[in-house]
Amino acid sequence: MARGRRPSNTLRSFLAYLEEIESAVLRRDSLRVTALLRKRTATHLPRSVREELLLISRQPRESLRAPVQFLRFQHRMTQLSKSESRLPTAQTELELEPRAAAGSIRRRSNADRRSTACDPADDVPGDVAS
């Protein structure tokens, strides 16, 4: 593959990267795990997974600790790749309120203040609230 070109299926290449990490962890090859975690692709791993992998790579070879968070993440990514739907390409933007002037207090309209958790119209006569 030419340098600078993106692979056609990024999720497939990410899963291959996760398999490389898995084999390095199973072999207890701490240098390989560290090298894999230095790649740019490692930024797509959750922080807790990266920290767990670093911790395990620094453990002695006799350690029986399993990379549980990594295996869960790998399983989720594998299941995601098997789904038929396309991955979202961008995050949904949140609509934020306009910035308030300095020293002013924001007041919400009565329409915004209504609670939908309890509607008095739904009360049944004789029904006792707990």
Short overview:
With 130 residues, the chain is mainly α. It contains five helices and no strands.
Specify the number of helices. 5
What class would the helix/strand composition place it in? mainly alpha
Largest β sheet strand count, sense and barrel closure: none
What integer value in Å does the Rg equal? 25 Å
Got a strand count?
Answer: 0
Low-confidence regions:
none
Termini gap: 66 Å
Q: What fraction, in percent, of the residue positions are helical?
A: 40-55%
Q: Percent of residues in beta strands?
A: under 5%
- Shape descriptor: elongated
Name the helix and strand elements from N-terminus to C-terminus, one letter apiece. HHHHH
What is the mean predicted local confidence, pLDDT? 80
In words, what does this structure look like?
- With about 130 residues, this protein is mostly helical.
- The chain has a domain at about 10-80.
- The protein is about 40% helix and about 0% strand.
- The protein is built from 5 helices and no strands.
- The chain has helices spanning about 10-25, 30-35, 45-55, 70-80, 110-115.
- Helix 2 packs antiparallel against helix 3 (about 45-55).
- The longest helix has 17 residues, at about 10-25.
- The radius of gyration is 25 Å and the shape is elongated.
SSE inventory with pairings:
Elements: H1 10-26, H2 30-37, H3 47-57, H4 68-82, H5 110-113
Notable characteristics:
130 residues, mainly alpha
